[in-house]
Amino acid sequence: MTAILRAEGISVVHRTRSGPLHAVTDVSLSLHPGRTLALVGESGSGKSSIARAILHLPPPTAGTVSLDGTDLAELSARELRRLRPRIQMVFQDPVSSLNPRRRVRDIVAEPLDAHSRTAAAPDRDARVAELLDAVGLPARQFADRKPAQLSGGQAQRVAIARALAADPQVLIADEAVSALDVSAQATVLNLLRTLTDELGLAGLFISHDLGAVRAVGDDLAVLYLGRLCEEGPTEEVLAAPAHPYTAALLAAVPEPGRALGDTRPAAADPPSPLDPPSGCRFRTRCPLATERCADEQPAAKPVSADRTVACHHPLALA
Ligand SMILES: Nc1ncnc2c1ncn2[C@@H]1O[C@H](COP(=O)(O)OP(=O)(O)OP(=O)(O)O)[C@@H](O)[C@H]1O
C-alpha cells in the first residue's frame, strides 16, 4: 500500500532558555489513504510537535516530510502555502477555533472562499450543505447559527466540515475529542472513522487516551519522550503490547512500574526532554531495564510481520 504522507527520521528541537529541548527524536511515520494512524503518548511526549513538523510549521530540525512523493523541503514558500491545505488539522478546543462572529455557513465556506473554487453563491451554499450533511449537522438547522449556539461536539463537527471543505488528503486530529463529553466524543470518533473510510482520507489521530485510540485508529504508534516505542495494528498492539511502556499505559495506573507487578518505586515524573536519559528513554521508569538499556538506544525491530518495537527486552507476544 502506498503512503500518501511520509515523515522520515524527523526530529524537533526547540530552543529554550535552558538549552535545546529535544521534543521529537528520529520519528518515522506513514499515513495511508482510508486508514487512520493513532499517535498516543503522555502530555509533553511530542505529539503536537510532530503534527506541526508534518505541516512544516516550522519544518522539522532534521528529517523529511513528503506528501504524495513531494518533499516539502523542496517547495518554495508559495508552493508550500498552496500545498498545505491538503493536510488539514482539527484541534482540541473547537469553540475557540471558530470565529464567534461568523455564522456556521461562512465558517465552513472559509476554504472555498480562500481558493475561490466556487464562483456562484448557489454552488457555495450547496457545497456547505453537503459538508454539513457529511458531519451530521443538517444545514437547515445549523447553517445560520453562530459558534456560541453550538455544543462542543457540534462545534467540533463544524471544524471538521471546514477542514473537509479544503478537499484534503490528510486529516490530523490533535486531541480533537479530549475536551468533549463522553457522548460527543463517541459521535466525533465515529465521524472521523466514517470520513476516512468513505472519503479515503489518511488520518492521523493524536491522543493521550488509549480508549479513544481504540475507537478510531487502524494502526497505533506509541510515543514516549519524543521517541516511538512501538507501532503496529491497533488491535494487535493493545491485545499484546511488546513495549513495557505500552503495557504500562494499558494498565492505566499512574505508576508504570507497579502495573507490571514490580515492587521498585518507579520514577514519579517522566524525565525532562531538556535532559533525556541515555539509551532507552523509558529505562528510568521501566521495571525490565538493564545496564544495556542505559548504554544503547534500542533500534526499532520487527516483532511480527507488521509490528515493530524499540526495546532491548520486549514482552513476549501471546
Ligand atoms: N515552542 C516551544 N518552545 C519550547 N518548548 C516547546 C515548544 N513547544 C513544545 N515544547 C516542549 O516540547 C515538548 C513536547 O511538546 P508537545 O506539545 O509536542 O507535546 P504533546 O505530546 O503534544 O503534549 P500535550 O498533549 O501536553 O500538548 C514538551 O516538553 C514541551 O514543553
Averaging pLDDT over every residue, what do you get? Answer: 90
Instruction: Give the class from helix and strand content and strand pairing.
Output: alpha/beta
CATH superfamily of the largest domain: P-loop containing nucleotide triphosphate hydrolases
* Poorly predicted residue ranges: 253-265
Bound molecules: adenosine-5'-triphosphate
The strand line-up of the biggest sheet is 6-7-8-3-9-10-12-11
How many extended strands?
Answer: 12
SSE pattern, N- to C-terminal: EEEHEEHEHHHHHEHEHEEHHHHEE
Rg over CA atoms, rounded to whole Å, is 21 Å
CATH-defined fold name of the largest domain: Rossmann fold
Helix content: 25-40%
What's the CATH architecture name of the largest domain? 3-Layer(aba) Sandwich
Determine the strand fraction and express it as a percent band. Answer: 15-25%
Helical region count? Answer: 13
